[in-house]
Design brief:
The complex is a heterodimer. By secondary structure, chain A is of the alpha/beta class. Helix content of chain A is 45%, strand content 13%. Helix content of chain B is 50%, strand content 19%. Chain B starts with a helix and ends with a helix. Strand 7 of chain A pairs antiparallel with strand 3 of chain B.
């Protein structure tokens, strides 16, 4: 089994093979790490980190993305992605991510060709393989490479290497797009995404660190990590007020707390066109 | 919706039998998949311990209701 140093060396070799790269850059743990290492290995002139912006991309995430760009000299570009005009995406089927990523990677592939960058990269890692990740299929179809995954790096290992490199993202909670807060089959709309973003911003202002606000139509279901659950109960009235201000009629605190992927626990497959 | 009513009544009975008095349960969410429970907030740990049994009655999630009055209003509006 490869050591962490050996995996890092493998990542460096993969990046050298690529020569020049265009990186899908969300500002999360994985893409910040990948962009930093790419700049270190290939030089700024051979790297472009690209952030796809849309209603499903939270403003707080963009702040982190831009902060790292400034601090680590990462060449960066923002582009608009248009998944919200794709009825397949809006319908919010179980393969919603496929339609979003097809939009993103199509744009990045074209951009890379225009800029003369040899390879498009994503930040998928070794832990993503067993998960339900329809977005990875879109990446494969468009020839996007996943160097972190190819090097065998897990999320925990990427966090450790990020810590060693002094990246502020090393201990940041995972931050998937806002659409992931809507259960499959509930249509993705700009208004619902705004509600979730406002509600989560309010949670952040109250000092909560690892949580999700799940959108269930008229109800918000809050998941907070186990260590923060008692505090959520203490602040229940304030939370209820904040989330009502964000547009929810009902505010619910999940008694089991935050767990990854909980929104679709036991969810049946939802076919396209089934959204309300 | 008799299916929902059955789950709600069973959940209230279960919670009461396990020593949490006065619980009110409503089905919430766009697919009525959440057991939204009104109990004293300090009972959340006891409620969490019951979550697997409540879910087994046909709910996907178990949650504490933070705006009891608002849920009454929402339910009234929907039923009318």
């Amino acid at each position: 089994m490869a050591t962490l140093d050996e995996k890092y060396a493998r990542l460096v070799d993969i990046l050298r093979e690529c020569g020049s790269v265009c990186i899908g850059y969300s500002g999360g743990v994985d893409s910040v790490f990948l962009a930093k290492v790419a700049v270190d290995v290939l030089g700024r002139e051979n790297v472009l980190a690209v952030t796809g912006r849309s209603a499903s991309y939270p403003a707080v995430q963009l702040e982190m993305a831009l902060d790292c760009v400034r601090r680590f000299g990462i060449p960066h570009l923002e582009i608009e992605t248009d998944e919200m005009s794709d009825p397949n995406y809006i319908a919010n089927p179980t393969n919603r991510c496929y339609f979003c990523k097809t939009e993103l990677w199509s744009k990045l592939t074209a951009l890379a060709a225009t800029r003369g960058l040899a390879v498009v990269l994503d930040g998928s890692n070794a832990d993503d393989v067993g998960d339900h990740r329809p977005g990875m299929r879109a990446a494969q179809e468009l020839g996007v490479r996943s160097p972190l995954l190819e090097a065998g790096l897990t999320k925990a290992e990427i966090r450790e290497l990020s810590r060693r490199l002094g990246l502020p993202t090393w201990d940041r909670p995972a931050s998937p797009c806002l659409s992931s807060r809507l259960p499959y089959g509930l249509a993705v709309t700009p208004e619902r995404l705004r509600q979730v973003e406002a509600a989560e911003e309010a949670m952040r202002r109250r000092g909560f660190r690892e949580f999700r606000v799940r959108h269930h139509g008229d109800a918000a279901r809050i998941e907070v990590s186990a260590p923060e659950l008692a505090r959520a109960v203490e602040q229940a009235d304030g939370l209820a007020r904040d989330l009502r201000d964000a547009g929810f009629e009902r505010v619910l605190l999940d008694v089991e707390g935050y767990r990854r992927g909980a929104l679709n626990e036991g969810a049946p497959l939802v076919r396209l066109g089934a959204a309300r | 919706m008799s299916d929902v009513d059955t789950r709600v009544a069973a959940a209230e009975r279960l919670i009461r039998e396990r020593g949490i008095p006065g619980a009110v349960v409503r089905a919430a969410g766009h697919r009525a998949e959440i057991a939204a429970v009104e109990v004293p907030r300090d009972a959340i740990a006891a409620l969490a311990a019951l979550a697997p049994e409540i879910k087994a009655l046909g709910f996907r999630y178990v949650a504490l209701e933070l705006i009891p009055d608002a849920s009454e209003v929402a339910a009234t509006v929907r039923d009318s």
